[in-house]
Amino acid sequence: MATKSLFISPVPYEWKAKRDDLAEQYNARIISTGDLLRSEIKSQSDLGNSIKKDLDAGKLLAPHLLIELLDKAFFDPEEDLFLIGFPLSEGFTKELANFLSHSAKQIGKVFVMDMNRGEFEKKLCDTYRCNQHILVSGVVSPTTVPTCPECGEDMTRAYDLNNPTLQGTLDQYYKEQKGTLAQAKKLCQTISTEYVSFD
């Protein structure tokens, strides 16, 4: 029986490497909620048309539509899958728990990135970017100033942690993160699946 897992990370792009390592370890393919939605809409199925109708009207996606999509595109395929981007709002978690309680389908594990603020801010502080080549990925370098692979110039720090706007954004983000992690734990308790926390 194929194993289905959720991967929850407050800052997905920061822990892409960890996510990829976990998927490789469990021999699972990574799929995202966004990709599933776009594919279903493109197929012009009845479900895809219903999803498109909600989104075109500027509405929040109805939880039952997402769960119907996951039943078809996440739970049905006979392969091990990691799902990223599941919205952990109360409405979606309740709908998922209700679906699983009336189905033989299961989620094997919920992997949750438990982000420590001090460690994350240090990572931001040690992240450098090139001012001339904005498409070049940021480089985390705790000890030396890295050079841009495109132009060879020294990179500059990507984030100013003394900026009040950035601090305000981080404050709000960590407040929301607490709610996200609480919903993930509640989901695991409700559906009796394993909650795996890592940093």
Rg from alpha-carbon coordinates: 19 Å
Terminal CA distance reads 29 Å
Secondary-structure-derived class: alpha/beta
Q: How would you name the oligomeric state of the polypeptide chains in this document?
A: single chain
What percent of residues adopt helix (DSSP H or I)? 40-55%
Account of the 3D structure:
This protein has a 5-stranded parallel β-sheet, sandwiched between helices. A 3-stranded antiparallel β-sheet has the order 6-5-7. The model has no long low-confidence stretch (mean pLDDT 85). It has helices spanning 16-25, 33-43, 46-56, 63-75, 90-101, 117-125, 164-191, and strands at 4-8, 29-32, 81-84, 109-113, 127-129, 139-140, 156-157, 194-198. The two termini are 29 Å apart. The longest helix is centred in the last third of the chain and has 28 residues, at 164-191. Helix content is 47%, strand content 15%. The chain has 199 residues and is α/β, with parallel strands linked by helices.
SSE arrangement:
Elements: E1 4-8, H1 16-25, E2 29-32, H2 33-43, H3 46-56, H4 63-75, E3 81-84, H5 90-101, E4 109-113, H6 117-125, E5 127-129, E6 139-140, E7 156-157, H7 164-191, E8 194-198
Parallel strand pairs: 1-3, 1-4, 2-3, 4-8
Antiparallel strand pairs: 5-6, 5-7
Helix pairs in contact: 2-3, 2-4, 4-5, 5-7
Key terms:
199 residues, alpha/beta, 5-stranded parallel β-sheet, 3-stranded antiparallel β-sheet, 15% strand, globular
